[in-house]
Amino acid sequence: MDFQLLLLTIGVSFVLAVISAPLLIPLLRRMKFGQQVRDDGPQSHLKKAGTPTMGGVIILLAFTLTFLKFSPVDTNFYVLLVGTLGFGLIGFLDDYVKIVFKRSLGLTALQKLFGQLLFSGIMCWLLIANGHSTAIGIPGTDWSFDWGGWFYYPFIIIMMLAISNAVNFTDGLDGLLSGVSAIAFGAYALVAIQSTSFAAAFCAAAMIGAVLGFLVFNAHPAKVFMGDTGSLGIGGAIGAIAIVTKSELLFLIIGGVFVIEMLSVVLQVASFKTRGKRIFKMSPIHHHFELSGWSEWRVVITFWVVGIVLAGLGLYINKGL
Which contacts of 260-268 are long-range, i.e. CB under 8 A and separated by 24 or more positions? Predict the structure, then answer.
């Protein structure tokens, strides 16, 4: 593995994002692609209304150009590309419908589900054609179980849906998802190197540079938001990397912040529907801390630190360090 080339990938992707952002942000502003803010959310967020969104195109553009340039081309390469750009396309359409057609919910749940199933299905087809192992390993052990393709491929379809939505829930504060995802991609780059999944390593590297370059403009106070274009694209990339590196269950640890965010939403909804009571002041859980008096920057930094700890724990369990 050429580590210098991997570092170059991160650097080039970062520079592309930093260069393209000042060109695209004014364009998004002129096209009136502004953020819509929930009235029932933290009052401090109301001032964010109108901030350009759909900035995920910056991330996907930097990622795509760099990944195509540096990554070795094999079946995993196409799986990673479909996972990232396919889910990013769903997010782009969702953002477009929200903004252009003034539909606050964007695509319908059925339309979004169809798109996620479509691209997950294409990924499965590519994996089957490549003879991808259907065994699922237990992190930190030599144990694994293989119940065949009838179980594995529905499992990874559900996994792609769950990861992309969990990552999407995490995008709610300036710089939160950009930072947490950069940490997760850093951990997965090491996992990919260890598993000799070089296309996955370059995918992670390209995403590290892209999200860090975007973070320059997304840190508080944000000049641009990534929208579902970015969050679903990031989620698709993380899910695809976890699959091709055969570290499907390791996501529960490395992506622990995303898991916590999703669980907070599930628990909140379940509690309200069954008991008529809310567990958190607001979900996802990062809003609970805001409404508890934490500053936005304090919440973001805390979640970054938790992300670093969980990424380190995941690498330790995976014997990656």
Answer: 260/285, 261/166, 261/169, 261/170, 261/285, 261/286, 262/162, 262/165, 262/166, 262/169, 264/288, 265/169
